[in-house]
User: Which sequence fits this backbone?
């Protein structure tokens, strides 16, 4: 994929599928944005380019899904969390390496690092595991 | 300036629950008949209709529901528009009705909502509800609707020390009120121990923290000051309305222990009505999950952030408390047929205000607030209503 091309949602999803996560970056103010937005939350610009991220961040919220939608049924129970990347943007992904029987032991603010998970649904998910 | 021309002159709902053998159009027609002909309002007087349905495309394989439902209910021919804003579909339909009356375009309109949810599997319903979140970035990793509120609960617990038991108390209160309501899906009280049964749906939310999957419909007739007198001596005036949106993705919000659209919509409604939270006698809030009621009670300004759980524990939100919340049982006990919910909330306020809430009647009932909330909180509508003689 061409890094110079204007970012699109489809290409963003394709990067995740290829385990090569890329975020949007505002050309005007440099804010890192993921998931994609057509407009920069910081400055209102609509000029975006691709950027890569360190992949490290902290856990902001999480849940363990026990009753899943049809497509994810075979994977339940699984963690979904919101992670604040060190670049400042917050993103939703799966959590790996946490015991689904003991969510009470997971602390908000925990350091996590970007990884991927292959679902039984055939898709690759953005995931995070303990740093 | 307060709204000054919109009156509710009738309101009704079907029983909510698993209405086996009753289709979407049949339950819709039942609610409409109760709110029109049975209430002494001729159907010929209805000039337009605003209909809330969320996702009949996935639940009963039916789109274009407004004309279909109106035709079956004997209202063919008038302008009929369907409004969709996930769980706030009903209240956005109501707002369209309010605007139609306030603008002077119509004198009398129907606002109604319906959803048929129990004819497909729980996993299929979960999938349909998940469509109210961002499909590309939230639903794609398997986040569900209960999961969204599970994360809000985790944030609230972390920030304010709210506990699973605090949330369970909301369920106990809902069931206590619902036990008196013959139209409720669950008409049985539950103990705190039962509410704490560890059957997790999306940790930390358990089975009894979640509103059920329901069928049902609700309908209201709105009319101008001049026409209102023809139908009733005791109309209810809608004096303030507010609506706000927020990012679809929960991760794009700075704050997870509060819903910014609820704060904005309620402030707009208070400002329009020229009233404040202390003027409200009670509220009907969107308790799709127990934690949602706790957060909503804070977001609408009834209680300081972080004190909503304590208000439940102290009985302040009970039917006989200082600020009753969901006195007829809420979504939790009455049921949550998504498109009907916002309309049903207005029906509840109407019935409480005119003193027609039967065993669920609260003692002080001059002014009430309804809070209807869509999806991950990306849409919120708040309406403030006052009995015309109050
Ligand atoms: Zn920018």
Assistant:
């Amino acid at each position: 994929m061409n890094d110079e091309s204007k970012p699109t949602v489809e290409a963003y999803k394709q990067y995740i599928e290829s385990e090569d996560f890329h975020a949007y970056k505002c050309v005007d103010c440099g804010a890192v944005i993921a998931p994609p937005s057509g407009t920069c939350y910081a400055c209102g610009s609509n000029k975006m380019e691709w950027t890569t991220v360190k992949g490290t961040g902290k856990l902001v919220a999480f849940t363990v899904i026990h009753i899943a939608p049809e497509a994810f049924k075979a994977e339940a129970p699984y963690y979904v969390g919101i992670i604040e990347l060190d670049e400042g943007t917050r993103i939703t992904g799966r959590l790996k390496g946490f015991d689904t029987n003991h969510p009470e032991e997971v602390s908000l603010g925990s350091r996590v690092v970007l990884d991927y998970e292959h679902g039984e649904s055939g898709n690759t998910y953005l995931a995070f595991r303990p740093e | 300036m307060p709204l000054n021309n919109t009156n509710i002159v009738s309101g009704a709902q079907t029983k909510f629950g698993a209405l086996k053998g009753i289709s979407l159009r049949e339950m819709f027609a039942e609610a409409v008949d109760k709110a029109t002909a049975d209430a002494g309002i001729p159907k010929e007087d209805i000039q337009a209709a605003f209909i809330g349905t969320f996702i009949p495309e996935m639940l009963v394989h039916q789109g274009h529901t407004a004309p279909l439902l109106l035709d079956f209910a004997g209202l063919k021919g008038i302008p009929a528009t369907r409004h969709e804003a996930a769980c706030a579909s009903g209240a956005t339909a109501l707002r369209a009705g309010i605007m139609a009356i306030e603008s002077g375009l119509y004198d009398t309109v129907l606002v109604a909502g319906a959803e048929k949810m129990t004819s497909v599997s729980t996993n299929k319903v979960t999938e349909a509800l998940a469509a109210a979140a961002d499909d590309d970035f939230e639903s794609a990793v398997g986040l569900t609707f209960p999961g969204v509120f599970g994360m809000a609960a985790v944030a609230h617990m972390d920030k304010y020390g709210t506990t699973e038991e605090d949330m369970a108390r909301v369920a106990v209160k809902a069931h206590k009120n619902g036990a008196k309501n013959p139209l409720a899906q669950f008409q049985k009280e539950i103990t705190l121990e039962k509410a704490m049964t560890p059957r997790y749906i999306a940790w930390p939310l358990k089975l009894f923290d979640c509103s059920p999957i329901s069928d049902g419909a609700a309908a209201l007739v709105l009319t101008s000051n001049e026409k209102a007198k023809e139908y009733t001596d005791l109309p209810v005036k809608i004096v303030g309305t507010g609506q706000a949106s927020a990012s679809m993705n929960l991760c794009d919000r700075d704050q997870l222990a509060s819903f910014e659209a609820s704060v904005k919509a309620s402030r707009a409604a208070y400002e329009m009505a020229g009233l404040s939270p202390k003027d409200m006698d009670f509220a009907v809030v969107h308790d799709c999950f127990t934690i949602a009621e706790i957060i909503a009670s804070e977001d609408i300004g009834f209680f300081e952030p972080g004190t909503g759980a304590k208000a439940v524990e102290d009985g302040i939100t009970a039917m006989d408390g200082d600020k009753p919340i969901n006195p007829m049982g809420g979504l939790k006990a009455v049921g949550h047929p998504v498109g009907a919910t916002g309309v049903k909330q207005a029906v509840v306020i109407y019935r409480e205000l005119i003193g027609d809430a039967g065993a669920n009647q609260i003692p002080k009932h001059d002014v009430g607030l309804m809070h209807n909330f869509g999806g991950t909180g990306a849409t919120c509508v708040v309406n403030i209503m006052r009995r015309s003689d109050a």
Chain A touches chain B at residues 9, 13, 35-37, 41, 60-73, 75, 77-78, 80-83, 90-94, 103, 108, 119, 123, 125-126 (CB under 8 Å). Chain A is about 5% helix and 35% strand. The pocket of zinc ion is lined by residues A 26, 28-29, 31, 40, 42-43, 45 (CB under 6 Å). Chain A has a mean pLDDT of 94.
